[in-house]
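Next comes a single protein record:
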Amino acid sequence: MTARIEKTVFISYRRTNFYTALAVYQDLTAHGYDVFFDFQSIDSGDFEKIIIENIKAKAHFLIILSQSALERCSEPEDWLRREIEMAMDEKRNIVPLMMEGFDFGSPTVKNALSGKLASLDHYNGLRLVSDYFFEAMERLRNRYLNTSLEEVHLHPLSKDAKELAEVQKAEAGKAEIVNTDQLREQEKFELENTYGSLRVPILGPIVAGPLMLVPESDINYLNDKEYDAIDIARSLLPSREKGDDLYALEVKGDSMIDAMINDGDIVVMKPASQALNGEMVAVRVNDEFTLKYFYKEKDRYRLQPANPTLKPIIIKINEPIEIKGKVIMVIRKSDKTQSI
C-alpha cells in the first residue's frame, strides 16, 4: 500500500517574524504545497473560525520560533498558544522551525511551556538560520514534510473559510520575494533583543496641535489583532523601565515637529499624574487632550508646542488640568524606533 504523503501546511507565527514566515510560505508554495499563511490580519469576527478550520484542514503545522515568540504563551488566551494546542489535539505533523537564538532551555521558553505546551520540545524541530535558509527548506520538504500521515484526518473548509483563505493566498502572492538580507535583519533584531519583545496596546489618538476633543475609548486594545498593538524590543526601553504598564497613542497634528514627532507617529507613554518642567506629556484640560511640553509657572501652566509657528497653551493655575502620562519613546512612521 502506497504511503499517504500530504502537501497541506499551516504556518503559525508572530508578526515580529513576518519575513521568515513569508519566506517559508513562498518556498513551499513554489514547490507545490497548499499553505495557509495569515498574510493580512483577518477581521476579528472571522479570525477564530478561519484559523480553527485551516488548522483542521492542513496536515502539517509549522511554528516559527524566535527567542521572543513564546513569551506570551503563558497567557491561556494567547492565540499562538491556542493554535499550537489545537494542532496537538488534531494530531498534526508539528514541526518547530527554530530561528537563530531560540533555545528550548531558556527561562522564558520554559516558563511559557506549561500545560499541553510542555511537550512542544519533544517534537522534531529544524534550525532555520538566515544564511542557510534554502538548505533548511530543502531539508524541511524532503524529510520533515515527506512523511506518511495515515492517522491524520483532514476536515473540509466551509465556503466562507475557503474564500477567505483564497484571499490570503492572493494577497501573499503579490508580495515581493523575501531576500536573505531581510532574513538577516529580522534575525539580527531578535538576537540583539536579549529579553524579547514587549507588546504595548495602542489606545487611540492624541492631538499634537490646538486643543480639541479626542474621546477616550473604553475598548481593550490589548488583544490578538496585532495592528491594535505594537511590539517593542525590551532592550530599547529606558534602563529603569520594565514596561509592564506602558500604552501607546497615535499622534495627530504637527505641533511637536521640532521634537521629531510627526503626524501619524506613535508615542509610547508611561502613566503619570505629575511631571517635571520640560517633560513631554499627554494632558487633559476639561474633556480635551493634547501632547505638549509641560511647564508649571508661578500662576499658570504652560503647554508648550515644539513648532515655532504655534503659540503655547496657557492654563490658569486654578483651572483643572490632568496629566495622563509621560512620553518615553517615539515610533516613527518609517518604523524606526527611537527613545526621546
